[in-house]
Amino acid sequence: MSIEVRQVCHPEAVRHFSSAELRRHFLIESLFVPGRITLHYSHIDRLVVGGATPTSQSIVLESHKQIGSPNFLDRRELGVVNLGGAGRVQADGVTYELGPRDALYMAMGTKDVRFESDDANAPAKFYLVSTPAHARFETTKIGLDRARRLDLGDAANGNVRTIFQMIHPEVCRSAQLVLGMTQLKPGSMWNTMPAHVHDRRSEVYVYFDLQPDARVFHFMGEPDETKHLVVANEQAILSPGWSIHSGVGTSNYAFVWAMGGDNQDFADMDMVPMDALR
After folding, report:
1. What pLDDT does 262 receive?
2. Which CATH number does 2-276 carry?
């Protein structure tokens, strides 16, 4: 298991970043490494983002000096979404079968966490997002059929999409983590525009269901000093609370969004008028 640390960047500094510097600080280019767990520890709300890709053997989620406790989840909670083939997660001896796009909320205090794939040739790709926690709730599996569904957008604006709220107060209780999935319909490319910020919570996106030659242009930065990152399949973006977070693809795609911070109110957004964007 490996863990990389990302420090916080002040918005005044980000105004002067080159494309390479933006990518180094905010883009996670490699999440899924066969047979390994790769983690990225962000000092933005102390989010931990990563991937677990078991092949022929199970792999174990271990703690690290950066986590600061004997077990990874002693003072944390964890969201898991399977973006690959069928697999399973074992949590203190209890097995949760996760098919493609199934999610799992894992409670604070879970000690033994293991990931397995059904088929090493079509391995599970477990996307991981962890936030600090103050209380223990129930470990819960959430399929798309159990999620809270919102159908939004229209074809004229190229943003017909379905939002699945998975780790959400109305679906699955958590200490602070909120997580869901958005799927864009064929012919739709835009997400979350007009843009917004929410300084009370930070966010992380992982884009997937992109063909090898397709890309998402992810817009970030202060509303009056916007930047962009070019994102490929199964890459993630760290989004601090002061930054907009919106994207447009060369084709339709899907993404998992996750948030941590002061509240769990999905609708807590400070909208940015289109004429304020620069």
Report:
1. 86
2. 2.60.120.10
Q: How far apart are CA 184 and CA 27, in angstroms?
A: 22
Tokens (6 digits) for 96:
């949760």
pLDDT recorded at residue 269: 87
Rounded Cα distance between 180 and 84, Å, is 16
pLDDT of residue 59: 98
The reported pLDDT for the residue numbered 256 is 98
Residue 125 in contact with residue 34, Cβ under 8 Å? no
Looking up tokens 């004429």 gives: 275
- Tell me the residue type at 24: R
List Cβ neighbours of 153 (8 Å cut-off, separation of 6 or more): 159, 160, 161, 188, 190
List, in order, residues 6 or more apart from 267 with CB less than 8 Å away.
Answer: none
∠ at Cα 254 (45, 248), nearest 5°? 85
What does the pLDDT look like over 182-199, one tens digit per residue? Answer: 999 999 999 988 899 998
CB atoms within 10 A of CB 156: 7
**How far apart (Å, rounded) are the C-alpha atoms in residues 42 and 7?**
6
Task: Retrieve residue 145's tokens.
Answer: 């059929």
pLDDT for 145 equals 96
Q: Low-confidence residues of the chain, pLDDT below 50?
A: none
Asked whether the beta carbons of 192 and 246 are under 8 A apart, the reply is yes
